[in-house]
Amino acid sequence: MTQPRLVSRIKAAAYCGLSPTAFSQWVDKGRLPRAVAGRKWDIEAIKIALDKMSGLDAANDNDPFEAWKRSQEGGK
User: Fold this and answer.
1) Residue 1: inside a domain
2) What does pTM read for this prediction?
3) Which structural domain range is residue 61 located in?
4) I want to staple 12 with a disulfide (CB 3.0 to 4.6 A). Which of 29, 41, 72, 75 is the partner?
């Protein structure tokens, strides 16, 4: 059985190894992406953000998370 791409805050926090409160703090600080589709988080966007924090995506100039983040901020 495949895992759903969109998950609850609790499941997203667990995926990251964070408490739900710490997960929300990371989202508020912009370390992790905000919810999409109401109150669901996109696991793929979280994976990209975690890769970036870990330095695994440092060579990628076309970072999809950064592009998504800019689009959410109005292109800043």
Assistant:
1) no
2) 0.72
3) 6-72
4) 41
